[in-house]
Design brief:
The protein is mainly α. Helices cover 74% and strands 0% of the residues. It has helices spanning 6-19, 24-33, 38-50, 56-71, 75-84, 89-93, 95-98, 101-117, 124-137, 142-150, 163-190, 195-208, 213-228. Helix 8 (101-117) crosses helix 9 (124-137), helix 11 crosses helix 12 (195-208) and helix 12 runs antiparallel to helix 13.
Length: 230
Amino acid sequence: MGEISREKAMDLAVKYLSFKSRTSSEMVGYLKKKNVPDTIIAEVMQKLDEYHYIDDAVYLKNYLENNRQLNYYGSRRLLQDLKKRGLGDDLLLSLVDLFPREVEMHCCEMVAKKSLVLLKGQTPFQQKKKVYEKLGRMGYPTEMVLEVIKNLELTDEFMELSADDLVREEKKQQEKLDRDFQKYLRTQRQKGLAGKVLIYQIKKSLMGRGYPYELINEKIEAMEEELLDE
């Protein structure tokens, strides 16, 4: 197979961008997977920068605006996700200014209120526990989560639930998930499954046990590179 030309590499890059915005790191990684030589990747990245097709600073601002409008993730989750997308430390440091505490608090409150709608009929203890777990999975700081939960208007008689109670309950659920994950991992490996098929079957099994989708995804993402390398 001959060396990929700059024109072909540029076509690949533009097509990759046609689906959604990308960071510089994502684009370089994609072109490397397509076996584009490093020298040509450098030329393509220069052109993409000149055309303003890729701009990590703009990407970060758009990403955070989308989060404010749609996803409502907390700062810990955002930082983790943006690191995976390859944004540089200088841009990540600006997260504090671009996603200030008052904005994060508003998002946290929105998630809590929406969650309560789905928890009608459950006891105050169950409501607070599940909201706590939800907000934790979505990456909000623990002190912010506890402040929001303290101000929730519950649908039944108030029952005090301490921070230690919440942390213990979350730890128990995480430990149970870890045990089930390892059990299903062993079972599926014994069947000869690997890669994406293995991940799919583990997800399916964990969802069947009633674990929240966000918690399953968080566990899979932490192990994904190891699982895909098999």
